[in-house]
Amino acid sequence: MSRRSHYWERGADFPIRDADALDAMFDAKMPELLFGEGDRVDAFASPRIAIVGTRAATPMGIADAAEVGAFCARAGITVVSGLAIGIDGAAHQGALDAGGLTVGVVATGLDVTYPRRHARLYEQVREQGLIVGENDYGTQPLPWRFPIRNRIIAALADAVVVIEATLTGGTRITANDAVRFNRDVYVMPGSRRNPAAAGCNALLLDGAQPLLEPSDVLFAIGRGGTLAGGWTSPPPPLHPDQQAVLKALAGDGATIDEIERRVPFPPRRLGAALRALELGGHVERKRGLWWPR
Amino acid sequence: MLASVRSAVLDGVDGGIVTVEVHVSRGLPGYTVVGLPDAAGRESRERVRAALLSSGLEYPQQRVTVNLAPASVRKTGAGLELAVALALTCAAGGLPAGVLEGVGVLGELGLDGGVRPVVGTLALVDALVRTGVEHVIVPTANASEAALVPGAVIRVARSLGELHLCLKGEATWPDPPNPPRMESALPETDEPLDLADVRGLRGARRALAVAAAGSHHLLMVGPPGVGKTMLARRLPTILAPLDRAEALEVTKIHSAAGTHRGPALRTDPPFRQPHHSASMVSLVGGGSSRVRPGEVSLAHRGALFLDELPEFPVHALESLRQPLEERVVRVSRASGTIEFPADFLLVACANPCPCGRKSEVCKCGDVQRMRYSRRLSAPLLDRFDLRIKVEPDDETGPGETSAVVAERVAAAVARQKARLRGTNWRRNAHIPAGALERYTVLLDDARQAWIETCFSRQLTGRGAARIRRVARTIADLDDRGEIGALDIDRAAWMREDLW
Fold first, then answer.
1. How many CA atoms lie within 13 A of A239 on its CB side?
2. Which residue among A271, A279, A288 places its CB closest to the CB of B496?
3. Nearest by CB: B365 against A55, A274, A275
């Protein structure tokens, strides 16, 4: 297990490059000292983009976060996030799986793994990036520490991407901090029926940039249009039955009952279509429902 | 100066034979009971003495020793008192020797000489008859239940005095009870329940019928108010009636547990719905002095409905795993191990998260939801063949009535019984993996669908076998001999990961 420790003081190589300016202009209370653990100090040498979102993410949000994370990794961008379950974890994992660098900002001491089920993710981030935080070793996860931690995520990043956010969650705090610190905020639009997208749509109303394709993030770091990057969804199914099933799902989760009622053919043909769609990665089953991917 | 008579005490839900020996000899007047009686057995001396005197019989002013053989088994309850009183009268010379030969006696005594009922009559009489007893004397209240046991002459005892005269041949026996008819003991409710009361929920209805027909355990998860509980409470209206052998088993258990009401042999399958504060002992059976059957045994050959499944104590739920798998429950105590039958259909309901609100307004975080679902272990969830999500739907027309569904279920049960004749398995859910190829024949397209399903869902061998059994039941409900592709698909659709 690698536990290479680092710390940065305010100065030329402080990861938050404009920390002094942020303090002076916005009273941002940036940390004087940042602790870190991990093998890749060079993670801070690349452009950084924060990918954040709710913990109560939908399976579709999880997939999108992983894909944006992977795109950033391929573009040589370091993915910054909060190591939480849901969108954060998916963004880290997407970047890691694509072989990129990633930085996890924690609200605890560096020796505390929270949530514990991300123990494996913590190890991977240490190997392929850094885990950083402002707190002493042994600091426990207390609810009020997380919103405070979010200002570091916003300040570390050159731009912030919000994938899914509820109206009241901590993601709004990160996005507001980012706006305050003059970082671009890109937001994935979502359906009004998706409670995990309500926060995103509210941010768009406030004037955030919509993220229509992963490559849109390149504009934030002045490399707009240099790299093609649409969504890498699998090629659309050709069979009309399968297309009808995807249409019946209408971009949302549905029970098998609902699908059966909505498709225009008898259930005899539904089984084959669903099996082919599942094998092809077009749909997945979660929480007792069928979801498009 | 020695007399003996056979009687029986409960051992779990079965009867254990006890030979009551009474010895009357010269010496200081006294009364001693040996052979591990419990407190009720030791107190019996006062009841026996008062009952004899009230009935005008002699209580010997001599040394009386009562032995309950076999001496090493603990005897519970007061059901041996009538036997003690008769043997004592016989030993003291009040009855001709030999009159208690081949007779089994059950009953508790009142101080006035009246004979009071005992629990578990069916099991006790059954045990007595098996040991070759020809006449069984039982309390009036237990007479019709005793008459269910074939091969014995049932004698009715109203009081000790009358019984004494009958045994001496100085009076005629009261009329023996008529063997009871097969009768339904469904509780009469103001409004009879019917499946037609539930609107919509087509998928859940279908799953309920599959569960009832093939004895596949069913878990329904959905927001409150959607109709899960309403549906589950109507399960008794579609369960197939018990046949005579099953009815005897069920009556025996309920008689031993003291929950059997009325003289009838019950033909409707039991439906038990314990509250979620139920303890482990109340679910699987146990108890300190007398080991009692738990809810799983009271639901034997019927259904056990656990509403709000995650609210049950975790260790109580985990204790269900063994009976679910083996269909018997073994309760071990220092005094020995007792095996209760526990072949039941488990139907359970749960909310998707602790707040239980619809997903639009639910404020539960992923962590809370995870913690809630973790109360149900993977091995327990795996034992549910049918796991469905129940969502509100906009269908408003009334569904099929219970009568229609019950008929289909009964036909499917008959098909299974015919197919599984000569085996130990009653329903499709009981077919072991090794016998699946023989009893669940797949058509070509069904096999294709089954293999594809296994691949796309990355099923384990156990999961694949469960889908096959459920598919067999679905085909049985449709009265089809072969399993088609849609049966496999429907079976797979009724087995979702709910969290």
1. 13
2. A288
3. A55
DSSP B218-240: EEEE--TTSSHHHHHHTGGGTSP
- Nearest-Cα distance to chain A for B437, in Å, is 22
Least confident span in A59-68, A101-110, B360-369: B360-369
Separation of alpha carbons B144 and B138, rounded Å:
10
Dump pLDDT digits (tens) for A142-171: 999 999 999 999 999 999 999 999 998 889
Put the strands of the sheet holding B153-157 in their side by side order: B30-34, B63-69, B14-25, B2-11, B103-105, B135-139, B153-157
Give bridge partners of residue A80 from the DSSP assignment: A50, A103
Torsion of CA B214, B217, B223, B228, to 10 degrees: 50
B99 C-beta neighbours (distance < 10 Å), count: 16
Question: Average pLDDT of chain B?
Answer: 87
Cβ <8 Å between B485 and A274: no
Residue B427 DSSP symbol? S
pLDDT at B186: 53
Contact B497 A286 (CB under 8 A): yes
Q: What is the pLDDT of residue B189?
A: 53
Give CA–CA dist A151/A177, Å, rounded.
6
- All residues of chain B having their beta carbon less than 8 Å from the beta carbon of residue A146 are none
Report percent pLDDT > 70 for chain B.
94
**CA-to-CA distance for B247 and B243, rounded, in angstroms?**
6
Average pLDDT over residues B80-93: 92
Query: pLDDT by residue (tens digit) across B226-264?
Result: 889 999 999 999 999 988 888 888 988 888 888 776 656
Contact B250, B463 (CB under 8 A): no
Size of interface A-B (CB pairs under 8 A): 69
Q: State residue B469's pLDDT score.
A: 95
Task: Please indicate if any CB of chain B lies within 8 Å of the CB of A192.
Answer: no
SS (H, E, C) B292-349: EECHHHHCCCCEEEECCHHHCCHHHHHCCHHHHHHCEEEEEECCEEEEEECCCEEEEE
Relative orientation angle of helices A240-249 and A267-279, to the nearest 10 degrees: 90
A60-81 mean pLDDT: 92
- DSSP-derived letter for residue A10 is S
Gyration radius (Cα) of chain B, Å: 27
What are the pLDDT digits (tens) for B454-495?
A: 888 888 888 899 999 999 999 999 998 889 999 999 999 999
Contact B391 A255 (CB under 8 A): yes
Instruction: Output the CA–CA distances (angstroms, integers) from residue B57 to A105, A150, A214, B88, in the order listed.
Output: 93, 93, 101, 10
| Residues B456, A256: C-beta atoms closer than 8 Å | no
Tell the residue number behind the tokens 């149900």, with chain if given.
Answer: B376
> Which of A55, A115, A195 shows the shortest C-beta gap to B360?
A195
B493 touches chain A (CB under 8 A): yes
Is the pLDDT at B301 greater than 80? The verdict is yes
Summarised one tens digit per residue, pLDDT across range B386-433 is 999 988 877 777 788 999 999 999 999 999 999 999 888 989 999 998
Closest C-alpha to B453, from B488, B494, B483 = B488
- Which of A168, A287, A289, A291 would best serve as a mutation to test chain B binding (most B beta carbons within 10 A)? A287
Question: pLDDT: is A120 or B352 the higher one?
Answer: A120
Q: Chain B residue with minimal CA distance to A279?
A: B456
Q: Is the pLDDT of residue B190 over 60?
A: no
Distance from CA of B156 to the nearest CA of A (A): 59
Confidence of residue B150 (pLDDT cuts 50, 70, 90): confident
Buried b (16+ CB within 10 A) or exposed e, A73-103: bebebbbbbbbbbbbbbbbbbbbbebebbbb
How many whole angstroms separate alpha carbon B185 and alpha carbon B269? 9
